[in-house]
Amino acid sequence: MDHFDYVDGTMRVEQVPMAEIADAVGTPVYVYSTATLERHVGVFREGLAALDNPLIAFAVKANPNAAVLATLAKLGLGADVVSGGELLRAVAAGIPADRIVFSGVGKTADEMRLALEHGIFQFNLESEPEAEMLSKVALSMGMRAPVAYRINPDVDAGTHAKISTGKSENKFGIPYDRAIESYAAAGDLPGLDVQGVAVHIGSQLTDLAPLEAAFTKVGALITALREAGHDIRTADLGGGLGVPYDPSQPLPPSPADYGAMVCRVTQGWPVRLMFEPGRVIVGNAGALLSRVVRVKQGAKAPFVIVDAAMNDLLRPSLYDAWHDIRAVAPSGKQAAANVVGPVCETGDTFAMGRDMDVVEAGDLVAFMTAGAYGATMAGTYNSRPLTPEVLVSGDRWAVVRARPPIEALIEGDSIPDWLAD
After folding, report:
1. Which interval of the chain is the signal sequence (predicted)?
2. Which of 36, 326, 353, 380 has the highest CB neighbour number within 10 Å of its CB?
3. Is 276 annotated as a binding residue?
4. Is 344 a catalytic residue?
5. Is 4-31+283-411 assigned to CATH 2.40.37.10?
């Protein structure tokens, strides 16, 4: 559920007309709904209500906007970060460091020092050399780093290959069959407090079976590690729960279904459970608002050329991802169309042969379910400025990231002395 609805024939986000935002800020622009964020946090938390004090750490990579993070911080969420920059963003937005988990395969020594200085809750280590580096960094600071190993359970998540992370050929984590050996080595490293196990098998999962298979392996590993003398106190079960993009497809499992499965599989585990939801919290809370530049006739269907492009919303180009495309003020007529952006790439395509609202030049369209992996993956290809972002709360709205002028992009370059003349 989201809070993008039609009132008197035009789309509103909560109580604000989308056209009002477009007229004031320009397009393209990302628009986020506070009410939807609040609802999704509540639903996810309700799904885990039977658990004892779980840590829900929002995956910052899904949407790092400061206003979004501040909203989630007020709702009590922690953060899952994968870079020093994300760590600083989370802290600046008010998320306490003792609710922050640091994941990612390429943490540098400087990022490790930064995280230790802030006192984060846990490092999710992804290799033995990373454990050795963190040991040296922690020793140099006279500290002990709380750690878990991320386990690669060799489970196929059944999602797109580019967002699958739990198969043996993926770069993430240590192999399940090497875990006992790796934990033994980590336990001998000074400066490390080996406290947990972590797993994350992919994103946009629409079936609970792969998650259950992975969690079952984690449970067996926790038992084996504790029998080997390790004081395992946490289990990070990752994120990945999917959201509905295509209304013609079956709905993904609900947080309630997910929570029931987790409770059943983890019953009796002597650990604090942790979760890293991202898309399921922010996906449906955002839309990318765009204006039609022109419509031109194609060989089979018209091309609807909009002012949003692949540099604003990369997912369709990168993953062949579906986003529902709706007219902000629909006429009631529908027809097949190809929706494309202005970037000089054939890949700058949002939909081909899509049955959708008939639109004309100047009309507004909204790309739905764009709150996750939208603005955060945006770039400046074709010298296009980054997309602005707006947060709505009831009848109030504010620009929470302004569109930078193209001059700022140009001024970021420098011309060497030998070309200055």
Report:
1. none
2. 36
3. yes
4. yes
5. yes
